[in-house]
Amino acid sequence: MTRNLLTSLFVILVVAASWLPAAEKRPNVVFVLTDDQRWDTISLNERSTVKTPNIDRLGKEGLYFRNAFCTTSLCSPSRASILSGLYGHSHGVQNNFTEYPNDLPSFPRALQAAGYTTGYIGKYHMGEENDEKRPGFYYFVTHKGQGKYFDT
Q: For 103-121, how does the pLDDT look when each residue is reduced to its tens digit (9 = 90+)?
């Protein structure tokens, strides 16, 4: 199943790239994940009272998922689901202390296979003691576990 997901993602990327005009064969892909943000707290949503002009610009010039859901509302399992495209019971990251399995495919690995340069900046939070570069990313900046908070 995991192999099928990776293969499907790779095929979609290759087909999508072949449909673009020559000057646009390599579109940039920027994925922004915000923690602890309700679905209606982005001003692209007409019900929002919060103003988010910079995120709105990304959504207007790119893609805004109007109907997306978090299937696992815990940091590490949720991130593993986003990276792998799998539900929590399938990818094996079941708590905030479990590393992302090294042999599990991910969309960054598929992007690398398609010739993209990939990077990750922010809270990775899969494994409490590891802040080393993860497979699928050429550039990787994070901190160990949850990081240090001021006056918690």
A: 999 999 999 999 999 999 9
- Spatial separation of the C-alpha atoms in residues 3 and 127, rounded to whole Å: 24
Check residue 76 and give left, alpha or beta (phi > 0: left; psi -120 to 50: alpha): alpha
- How close are the terminal C-alpha atoms of the chain, in Å? 41
Q: What is the pLDDT of residues 9-53, one digit of tens each?
A: 554 555 555 555 555 578 888 888 877 777 788 898 888 888 999
Measured in degrees and rounded to the nearest 5, phi and psi for residue 139 equal: -120, 130
In terms of Cα–Cα distance, which of 79, 82, 84 is closest to 96? Answer: 79
State whether residue 16 is helix, strand or coil.
Answer: helix
Residues with catalytic annotation? 75, 125
Q: Are 104 and 2 in contact (CB under 8 A)?
A: yes
